[in-house]
Each structure stands twice: as C-alpha cells, then as structure tokens.
Write a structure and sequence with these properties.
Layout (H helix, E strand, L loop, with lengths): L22 H18 L15 E11 L8 E10 L10 E10 L10 E4 L9 E4 L4 H12 L2 E3 L2 E5 L9 E3 L7 E5 L3 E5 L2 E2 L5 H11 L10 E5 L5 E8 L5 E2 H10 L5 H21 L7 H21 L7 H13 L20 E3 L5 E3 L10 H4 L6 H16 L6 H19 L7 H22 L5 H11 L5
Antiparallel strand pairs: 1-2, 2-3, 3-5, 3-11, 4-5, 6-7, 7-12, 8-9, 9-10, 10-13, 12-13, 14-15, 15-16
The structure holds adenosine-5'-diphosphate (ADP) and ligand LMANGFYV.
The ligand O=P(O)(O)O[C@H]1O[C@H](CO)[C@@H](O[C@H]2O[C@H](CO)[C@@H](O)[C@H](O)[C@H]2O)[C@H](O)[C@H]1O binds next to helix 9 and helix 11.
Length: about 475
C-alpha cells in the first residue's frame, strides 16, 4: 500500500469548538497557491524529491488556524499537500508535506526571507504568503495551541504537562530534515515536513523511553497530529537542552586541538547501551531467527543493488559488499540474535552533551529516506552501534591531516563503553557488526550523492575498506 496520506479536506476556522466548512474556498485555495509552491517547495532542504520535476499538487487537508480574512493581523493556514512527481524505483509514491503558511496584506521586512510570493487569485488574493514558522506572532500561536490542547479542524493537539505562556520563539537555521522552533530556550518544537500515516518513531520511542524512566532522551511534552486509524504525526515539543553541544561539533573540536575523544566516546557508548536496554524493556521484540535472518540479509543486498544503480561508483565493490552480508546468513545456524526497536540513524550529530558531560540522544525518526514501516522494524541493536562507528570515521576524515588511528581509538572506546553498560561487546559478533556497517556506508553513499556530492569520498573510502582486498 502506498504510504501517501489519504485525502481529508477540512477548512476549519480557529475558534475552538466551532468548525466551518467552505467548499468553495477549499476548491480555490490550492490552485491559487500552486504557482508559489512550484517555485518554493523544491528549494527547501527538507524536500525529499530533489532531481525530479513536480508535476502538480493535491490537497490532503487544510486548517485555517487563524482567520485568513482577519482585518489587521496575519492569517495562519495549516496545509498537508501531496506533491506529484514521476515515480522512481526507490521513491515509488508521492510525498505528503506539512506547510504552515502565514498570509498578510503587507509583509514586514524582517519576514522577507520567508516569503513564498504574492497570491493573485482565490481566497488569498492580494496577500503575501510566507513560511509562518519565521513569524514570532504565528509561532507563538502554535505554542498557545499546545497550551490549550484539543481538536482544531483536521488537527489534534495533545500534551502531558503544563506549558508556560509567552516564551519567545526563534527558528533554528540548522540544515535539517525537518524544521524546528526553540521557545525561550526551554522547549524545542520539531515540525515534521514529510509526513506519513502511522505514528512517527520520533514521538513513539521518546514517549516509550519516558514511560520507562530513561533520562537519556528528552521526553515529549506535547505533540500534534492529523488523527485517523493511521494518525500522521505532525510535530513534537520537547525540553530544549540549552547548554548542550552536539557530538559532531565536539569531535571536530577535539580533532582540531589534536586531542583524543576517548572519555567522551566511552561515555557515549554507555549512553547508547542504556537507551537500548530501556527500549528493549519498553517495546520487547522476539529474537531474529532463521528465515528472518535471511530476510535481513536480502533487504541489505537489495539496498546495495538499488544504491549501485543510482551511484555507479559502487559497482566494482558489489561482490565484496555482498559477501559481508552473506557472512551473516552463514552464521544463521547459531540460533539467532536479539533484536529490538533502535534509533535507526545514530550519528554524532544526534548526541548532545551537556556542560556537565551528560550525553542525551535525539531524533529517533530513523533514516529519513526509508519507508516508515521499515524504520519501525526491530533490528539487532548493533545497527545503531554501526552508525556511530561510521560517524567517528566521518569525523576523522573531515580533518586534515587524516589520522585513521584517531577514529580506530574512538571506535574501540565507544564499544568498550557499550560493553560496560550492556554486558555485551558489539565486537563479539564481528560479522553482524561488519554487515551493519556496510549497510550504513551504502546508505551514506546514496545520501551524499543526493545531498552533498563533495562528501561522497568519505563513505566511498569505507566502502573500499569493507569490500575487502578482492575488490577492484
Ligand atoms: N532537545 C534538544 N535540545 C537542544 N537542541 C536540540 C534538541 N533537539 C534537537 N536539537 C537541535 O536541533 C537540531 C535538529 O534536530 P533533529 O531532531 O536532529 O532534527 P532533524 O530531524 O530535522 O535533523 C539538532 O541537531 C540539535 O542541534
Ligand atoms: O541528521 P539527519 O537525520 O538529517 O541525518 C542525515 O544527515 C546526516 C548529515 O547531516 C547524515 O550523517 C552523515 O554525515 C554526518 C556528518 O555530517 C556523519 O556524522 C554521519 O555518520 C553520516 O552518516 C545521515 O546519514 C543522514 O541520514
């Protein structure tokens, strides 16, 4: 079944408990916005369909969160829009995107950078339409919705704790897969841009970990979704770790100062193990056995084949990489491996270290390019370990001169920390670890080819190493 969201159109005015439907306005809305979206959407960092033309849009839902025809102030429109694109082997279905659009008759200069354009016809004729997250008034209104939860049009707001009012918002300008607003350095709201039916693991797993008492992951305080049998998770509000720095910056800092990163890597290994232990307890999964092991290997091989079609530089290494996967099938008779829900895209940028040295993990969405069903699938925990091992390699390779021993020492320290806290050393199953590291490096080749071609040599160097000496 396609993962694109089902069509559900409601234009709801912002007054709580009063929903007004206006089919004429709905019908005119998207055609009037489409020329602006055609120009704006593909330029966004979070647009997943880069390199393929957008042939049209369809409206999944529209909710007027603040009246669009209000006399003075801005209007706020929440849209779920499906972008139609020619299908692609790895991208067979159209994607559904979440847009929060502001509308004003005149746009203050400070919002100039957020402008999509001026609308010429339809319900928004004559209005400047812009990305509402950049407008402090509208960002504040979003926080108000979380403070007073409930339904609004096709949206439902939930919270687990009281939230203070009037926290000044600022949009994060980081290169992200989604968009985030920080409120008063107390909370961070992540707005998912590409949305799927089914609870997003970035809500599901932190909620489960919070219930389990795991303090290593900021627990969601509030969230909003488009309800239904398969709800679409739209945004999550969580505590903001104000004095924390991410592991990528810290590792590059250490490299720049000619320092090792061993106590940090060891502590990060322990943190990963603690999160894994809590996840395994909160969401138990049966062990991976016989046929399932073969399916795991088949999925890895399939991803390798798809990646080598998209990035021909991989082709000479395919036999060696395949062998790394097949080594896992050959071990199948041993009786299987533990598997569980995992982070799914663990790297140094997803680890935040507070000033007192305490590591936290964030962003449990999994690899953004994979279908949600796959991202929610239990996996051997070594999958996350492999992700972090790759990250130490990335950090070392992005520093000149390259010192492979720096990465090797970090990788060992991380595994030692993991073993201390879990009682199981990831290096004890070298075939499984190597297969997962290979799978990750293949993903990275595809990711870099698409998003950052200058970085392609980094995962390609790992591919050469992992494919072994027989590769061309
Ligand atoms: N709870 C938090 N506290 C502090 N900073 C955070 C927190 N959550 C996210 N961030 C910052 O926001 C950035 C983007 O968050 P992330 O969840 O990785 O979003 P995306 O999926 O869009 O990449 C992170 O790299 C981090 O710098
Ligand atoms: O953080 P995201 O969820 O957006 O993850 C994606 O982007 C990451 C890059 O920002 C990418 O990570 C790769 O590059 C990192 C250095 O920039 C490195 O530390 C990671 O090990 C490497 O995988 C990630 O793969 C991608 O999903």
């Amino acid at each position: 079944m396609s993962e694109a969201a089902s069509t559900h159109v409601t234009l709801a005015k912002s007054t709580r408990n009063s929903t007004t439907h206006d089919r004429t306005r709905e019908g005119a809305l998207l055609p009037s916005l489409a020329p602006l979206l055609h120009a704006w959407l593909p330029r966004q960092r979070w647009f997943a369909g880069k390199g393929r033309p957008v042939t049209g849009f369809s409206l999944v839902s529209a909710t007027e969160m603040l009246p669009l025809d209000g006399a003075a102030g801005p209007g706020l429109l929440h849209l779920l829009v499906r972008a139609h694109q020619p299908p692609h082997a790895e991208h067979p279905a159209d994607d559904c995107y979440q847009l929060l659009l502001g509308a004003r008759t005149s746009l203050p200069p400070l919002l100039g950078g957020a402008l999509l354009g001026r609308v010429e016809q339809g319900p928004l004729a004559g209005r400047a339409v812009y990305d509402a997250l950049h407008d402090p008034r509208l960002a504040d209104l979003l926080l108000e919705r979380f403070r007073r939860p409930g339904s609004l049009g096709s949206l439902r707001f939930e919270r687990t704790a009281a939230i203070p009012a009037g926290l000044p918002p600022r949009v994060l300008d980081a290169e992200q897969s989604n968009s985030s607003i920080v409120y008063g350095d107390a909370y961070i709201l992540k707005i998912f841009r590409r949305v799927f039916p089914g609870t997003n693991p970035d809500l599901e797993l932190p909620l489960a970990l919070g219930r389990e008492g795991c303090g290593r992951v900021p627990a969601p305080v509030a969230w909003f979704e488009a309800p239904g049998p398969q709800p679409l998770t739209l945004g999550v509000l969580q505590p903001f770790l104000r004095d924390a720095l991410d592991g990528w910056r810290l590792a590059l800092g250490a490299l720049g100062e000619g320092r090792d990163f061993l106590p940090e890597a060891r502590a990060l290994g322990r943190t990963t193990a603690e999160v894994h232990t809590a996840l395994a307890a909160a969401l138990p999964a049966p062990a991976l056995r016989g046929a399932q092991t073969r399916q795991l290997v088949a999925r890895m091989t399939q991803r390798l084949e798809a990646a080598s079609e998209a990035v021909p530089a991989l082709v000479p290494y395919v036999p060696g990489l395949r062998a790394a996967f097949e080594a896992v099938t050959d071990l199948g008779h041993r009786g299987g491996w533990a598997q569980q829900r995992v982070h799914g895209d663990l790297h140094l940028g997803q680890a935040l270290r507070s000033a007192d040295g305490f590591w936290s993990l964030i962003d449990f969405e999994g690899e953004p390019a994979r279908p949600l069903s796959e991202r929610r699938r239990p996996s051997p925990p070594v999958r996350d370990v492999a992700g972090m091992l790759r990250s130490f390699d990335y950090a070392a390779r992005s520093h000149h001169p390259w010192d492979p021993r720096w990465a090797a020492r970090c990788r060992d320290a991380y595994c030692e920390g993991y073993a201390q806290a879990s009682g199981s050393d990831p290096r004890g199953e070298p075939e499984l670890l190597r297969a997962h590291e290979t799978d990750k490096a293949v993903y990275e080749v595809l990711y870099e080819a698409r998003h950052r071609p200058d970085w392609l040599p980094v995962p390609m160097a790992a591919i050469q190493r992992l494919a072994g000496p027989a590769a061309a």
